[in-house]
Amino acid sequence: MESDVKRIIVLGGLGLFGRTAAEHLRASGLSVLVASRRQAADITVDADNPDSLRRVLRQGDVVLDTAGPFQMRSTALIEAAIEIGFDVVDINDSLAYANKIVGLEEGIDHAHIRVLSSASSVSAVAAAAVRLSRVEAPVRVSGLIAPASRHTANPGSARSLIRSVGHPVRAFRNGQFQTLLGWSESKPFWMPNPIGAVHGRLFESADSLYLPRIWPSLTDVDMFVDTNTFGINFLLSLAARAPWLRRVLEHQVHFGTWFAKLIGSRAGGLGYEIESENGSVVTIAIVSGECGFVTAVAPAILAVRQIVNGEFKSTGVVSPDQHVDVTALCQFLAHRGVEVVRRD
Questions:
Q1: 272 and 163 assigned to the same domain
Q2: Which of 49, 86, 255, 286 is placed for a possible disulfide with 270 were both Cys, Cβ 3.0 to 4.6 Å?
Q3: Considering the domain boundaries, does residue 216 fall inside one?
Q4: Cα dist. 318→61, 117, 224 in Å?
């Protein structure tokens, strides 16, 4: 079927996730333009500058947005999409940014464009994990991120993480949003090799907004993070109780990023506990010894392919459970050495 897409643009395309997405899209025969604030890109553009966006983007474009950290982003890109008429697929993980997207839902609907936000491990992969669990009416979904820190560590994501430590974060508990302290709770997770058992710390996630919209039975949705780097979890746990240490870590974020890239784990993964109404729990683990970071962009890659091929019919703010076919996602990951393991 013929597509109306004029150009595929990967925003933030010089970063790890942007490069990964562009490489996979090109490998499938698609033409891709890389966009960044840096001059080395095919297109120079600032994702938070409305004038810059309006100069560069055109009606019919599909923009794959990987320009994090999304906690710091404005809605300039989405507002430009509404005005100009192009589609956006992003890999947002931020609850605050997800709320901004939902707040623009009416304008997105009227513009007859597609916005697939959180087409990433948060929240498209999380929704896929719930589907794989075959729990029809889940009451709790607890997620874990254990990044392949040797590959993924960067100053922007490190700052976002540190700023959540000991600060208020929101999680969906007892059927409503509750404000808690970031990193204040610890939760053990079972993960298969090469990761093994880990302890995640409480973090804020877009899952808390999107998953209850898909499954109204949910009363608890939360996210935990293990930095997957020796000594960093302990330091952040201390920083949660010592503001002076948090300030030191934030000031030394470039050193911390260098340290994580030097000794951090090459293996990475995601874990989900899905609890049913009768109290039984299904665990879905998604792990890789080397290429786990591809999971974060896999739903976005597959969604862009569908849009370009004229196969994606939904418009508006598309629910994360509709971003990608679960079987296609599992096959894509398996071909890249990422294993999906279920445990009852």
A1: yes
A2: 286
A3: yes
A4: 17, 8, 25
Q: Which two tokens stand for residue 156?
A: 């922007």
Structural domain total, the chain: 2
What residues pair up with 271 in beta bridges, in sequence order? 144, 285
* Domain co-membership, 154 together with 252: yes
Beta bridge partners of 220: 140
Q: What's the CA gap between 104 and 162, in Å, rounded?
A: 29
Regarding whether 80 and 113 lie in a shared domain, the answer is yes
pTM for the whole structure: 0.93
Taking only the tens place, the pLDDT of each residue in 20-79 is 999 999 999 999 999 999 889 999 999 999 999 999 999 999 999 999 889 889 999 999
By DSSP bridging, strand 33-36 and strand 220-225 are unpaired
Q: What is the rounded CA–CA span in Å between residue 180 and residue 325?
A: 34
Tell me: cis bond preceding 69? Omega within 30 of 0 counts. Answer: yes
CB 298 within 8 A of CB 125: yes
